[in-house]
């Protein structure tokens, strides 16, 4: 069927004026066969395998981008959680592996490589512990390596021993990069219920249910949704949901086409399409502004969670109808530093840490890119992680914490992380201590799956 | 052979001779124009041409020349494969 003029203009308008883009194409690569008791051999195998699968990602993605006229913003790599291949390696070896990942990423021209990760929601293996011990330094001495740690799941409960360690690791990572306002913490995500095929950084890794290599695609477009809503100022909330659904449907279809084309060129199977509204600091490319367009004077005020729930659900429905394989996190991200509307909400005193926490109950993913006062203690950070993990565990959803306790900065100051990571107002934390709770250690048991009220 | 089509879009300020200049480039590259239309999108003049690229060998070069032409006369010219429009608007 021929395409009508109005349809053509709609697509062109979305791309040229409303920031429709493919946020990321991410190759997941299995590294399990690279494990070796000789660290030099392991490093070489890891490097070779990443370069083998990843070397054409950038040129091919750029070619597809040109052919279809839809920008692909990021090209990335996710690998098997590194803890799973460390075996008897030492802490120093682990850091060498991180440097190898960094070098491979640089050599093939990708800006982030995810998977310096450990899944320790129930127990900790030798390799897991080595990875945790090396984590702060590994993030401080590399540029492109992203790390994630799973501390809880709905089926296993929350591993509070690791939660305690994570508070200390985050403080350590911040301290090691204090000249850059604790930048290392921006590359570390603490998860509950992580997904194995998430293409978005910093939390991407190649899960154990995946094949040798797979291409996953992250599509975004808060700007497109915002503009679509602006054309319907009088719509009731049912119609608002409908507008979002229709818009997201179209975005997803474009994403799947582009993803499959890139995957075909690379001779790698297409995995999933992750449709997540991920904001950027570009003008109008903001999730907060969508909520404000729905009718909130400022994000964070009463009604924010209801509006967010409506939006998140509509995004999922539109995406699920448009693609056969929707996966990853699929929903809406609410990072503070990467969303001009969120930043404004915090600065105007409308958006608080508690409200952000509550918002994560109804959308993916969690407390994301939030700058905290440098005074926040390790046990306070562990408390924040435990709260967020509990929300994920009970609600059977992914939640995450990516916070930056900025050394020597206090509530109200601004920090600049630069580039995609944006800038954020430093937020305060509750001054009362959580340390006795955190120090108890042990595991929070998995919740009942019935009696769910 | 399956027919492949692409969409050439021109966005910017209307001026004398735009269509002539763009179609000249297309003719030089042996690309047949199947359809042509114009409208106004958010105050910008927008012209769209559907072209046949089934046997096009050097699409990359054509795209590059169109981009340069756009810069020269102060409008934005793009050449996109039609599949992306099909994907977004047809199930």
Instruction: Using the coordinates above, name the CATH class of chain B.
Output: Alpha Beta
Q: Per the principal axes of the C-alpha atoms, what is the gross shape of chain A?
A: globular
- Into how many domains do the coordinates of chain A divide? 1
CATH superfamily of chain B: ACT domain
Which class of chain A in CATH terms?
Alpha Beta
Please give the radius of gyration of chain A in angstroms: 21 Å
Q: Please give the CATH architecture of chain B.
A: 2-Layer Sandwich
Helix content of chain A: 40-55%
CATH architecture of chain A: Alpha-Beta Barrel
Give the secondary structure arrangement, pairings included.
The complex is a heterodimer of chains A (453) and B (91).
Chain A: H1 5-17, E1 22-29, H2 39-54, H3 57-68, E2 72-79, H4 83-86, H5 91-108, E3 113-119, H6 126-141, E4 145-153, E5 157-159, H7 160-176, E6 188-192, E7 213-219, H8 222-230, H9 237-266, E8 270-277, H10 287-294, H11 304-322, E9 331-332, H12 340-347, H13 353-359, E10 366-373, H14 378-395, E11 399-406, E12 414-416, E13 423-425, H15 435-440, E14 443-444
Chain B: E1 5-12, H1 18-28, E2 32-41, E3 44-52, H2 59-73, E4 75-81, H3 83-89
Structure description:
The complex is a heterodimer of chains A (453) and B (91). Chain A has one domain (1-333): Alpha-Beta Barrel (Anaerobic Ribonucleotide-triphosphate Reductase Large Chain), CATH 3.20.70.20. Chain A contains 15 helices and 14 strands. Chain A has helices spanning 5-17, 39-54, 57-68, 83-86, 91-108, 126-141, 160-176, 222-230, 237-266, 287-294, 304-322, 340-347, 353-359, 378-395, 435-440, and strands at residues 22-29, 72-79, 113-119, 145-153, 157-159, 188-192, 213-219, 270-277, 331-332, 366-373, 399-406, 414-416, 423-425, 443-444. In chain B, helix 1 runs antiparallel to helix 2 (59-73). Chain A binds chain B through residues 1-5, 7-13, 16-17, 66-70, 250, 253-254, 256-258, and chain B through 7, 9, 11, 35, 37, 39, 41-42, 46, 48, 50, 59-60, 63, 76, 78-90.
């Amino acid at each position: 069927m021929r395409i009508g003029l109005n349809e053509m203009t709609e697509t062109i308008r979305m791309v040229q004026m409303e920031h429709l883009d493919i946020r990321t194409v991410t190759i997941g690569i299995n590294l399990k066969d690279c494990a070796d008791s000789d660290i030099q051999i392991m490093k070489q195998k890891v490097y070779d395998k990443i370069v083998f699968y990843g070397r054409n990602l950038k040129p091919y993605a750029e070619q597809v981008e040109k052919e279809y006229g839809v920008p692909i913003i990021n090209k990335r790599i996710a690998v098997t959680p590194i803890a799973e291949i460390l075996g008897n390696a030492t802490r120093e070896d682990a850091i060498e592996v991180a440097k190898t990942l960094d070098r491979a990423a640089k050599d093939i021209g990708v800006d982030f490589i995810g998977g310096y990760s450990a899944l320790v929601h129930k127990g900790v293996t030798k390799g897991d512990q080595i990875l945790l011990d090396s984590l702060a330094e590994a993030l401080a001495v590399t540029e492109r390596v992203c790390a994630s740690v799973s501390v809880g799941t709905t089926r296993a409960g929350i591993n509070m021993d690791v939660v305690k360690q994570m508070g200390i690791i985050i403080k350590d990572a911040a301290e090691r990069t204090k000249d850059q306002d604790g930048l290392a913490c921006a590359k570390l995500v603490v998860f509950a219920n992580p997904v194995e095929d998430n293409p978005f950084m910093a939390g991407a890794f190649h899960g154990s249910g995946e094949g040798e290599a797979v291409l996953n695609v992250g599509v975004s477009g808060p700007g497109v949704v915002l503009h679509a809503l602006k054309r319907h100022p009088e719509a009731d909330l049912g119609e608002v949901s409908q507008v979002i659904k229709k818009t997201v449907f179209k975005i997803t279809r474009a994403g799947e086409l582009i993803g499959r084309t890139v995957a075909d060129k690379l001779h790698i199977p297409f995995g999933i399409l992750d449709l997540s509204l991920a904001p950027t600091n570009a003008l109008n490319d903001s999730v907060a502004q969508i909520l404000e367009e729905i009718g909130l004077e400022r994000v964070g005020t009463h009604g924010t969670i209801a509006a967010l729930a409506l939006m998140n659900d509509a995004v999922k429905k539109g995406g699920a109808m448009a693609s056969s394989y929707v996966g990853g996190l699929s929903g809406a991200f609410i990072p503070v530093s990467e969303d001009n509307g969120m930043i404004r909400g915090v600065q105007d005193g409308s958006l608080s840490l508690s409200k952000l926490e509550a918002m994560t109950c109804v959308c993916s993913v969690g407390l994301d890119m939030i700058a905290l006062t440098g005074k926040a203690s390790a046990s306070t950070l562990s408390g924040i992680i435990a709260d967020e993990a509990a929300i994920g565990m009970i609600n059977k959803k992914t939640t995450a914490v990516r916070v930056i306790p900025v050394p020597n900065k206090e509530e109200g100051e601004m920090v600049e992380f630069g580039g995609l990571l944006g800038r954020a107002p430093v937020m305060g934390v509750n001054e009362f201590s959580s340390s006795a709770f955190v120090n108890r250690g042990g595991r929070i048991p998995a919740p009942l799956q019935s009696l769910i009220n | 052979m399956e027919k492949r089509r692409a969409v050439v879009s021109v966005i910017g300020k209307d001026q004398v001779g735009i269509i002539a200049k763009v179609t000249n480039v297309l003719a030089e590259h042996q690309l047949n124009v199947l359809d042509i239309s114009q409208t106004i999108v958010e105050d910008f003049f927008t012209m769209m041409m559907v072209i046949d690229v089934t046997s096009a060998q050097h699409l990359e070069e054509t795209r590059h020349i169109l981009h340069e032409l756009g810069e020269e006369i102060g409008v934005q010219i793009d050449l996109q494969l039609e599949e992306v429009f099909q994907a977004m608007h047809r199930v």
